[in-house]
Amino acid sequence: MTLPPGQRAVDGFPRFGAHLHHPPPPVPADPVIEIGGALTEAITLSATDLAKLPRKELGADFHCVAGWSATGLLWEGVAFKTLYRMHVEPLLESDTSMSHIVFEGLDGYRSVVLLEDALADDVLIADRLDGRPLDTDHGAPVRLVSPSQYGFVSTKHLCRIEFHTSEPPDPDRWSPLAAHRRARVWREERHRHLPGRVVRPVYRVLIGPIRALSARGSHTSPR
Ligand SMILES: Nc1nc2c(c(=O)[nH]1)N[C@H]1C(S)=C(S)[C@@H](COP(=O)(O)O)O[C@H]1N2
Ligand SMILES: [Mo]
User: Which candidate among 111, 113, 123, 165 keeps its CA 20 to 30 Å from the CA of 158?
Assistant: First the structure.
């Protein structure tokens, strides 16, 4: 098994994230995804709307920028590209071109992705993992999954997708851990300004504490 540079396999699939010890947000009774931004109108997609789209399975490893990789996951859901073609393209103005997408979670988390990266074949809006409905630790009711990019791109508890014609302002741009805009794992694009190799050891020391905190806020027992 080959992992991207600087990654180490972990057992199972830990809960991990900027949420630290906070429990996952409650799953709404009627979950929706709001779609807005630079479009002719904003729309809301319900679970029923999503269920009408063709489904896709995706076997992939999952790589966190801190350096752990969960291997052999099986995701199911709708390809982001499909959702884009069927629900977003009809709302594009003829003279505008999108460049960035913001994916927002029910916990307020946001990831910013280039349109071209989001339209890759392996980007999924997932509602099932390893043959079961997605649990709250891993992003219920639905999450983004982009396994060719570091895990921070894959917003859990997805509730809003926003389209932009230029790069949206990034409050973390000059933070010490500023995220790379493309975050491609095979190119080790970990940090916005520093080479991936250089930041590896710094990120690695964060794995233990973040993992322990995230497990404390977990709603399910570790697998
Ligand atoms: N809503 C939300 N999504 C999130 C995060 C978060 O804190 N909140 N953390 C990101 C990070 S840094 C990683 S590595 C993955 C972890 O996903 P997991 O908890 O399913 O392992 O979720 C990403 N998506
Ligand atoms: Mo991460």
Answer: 165
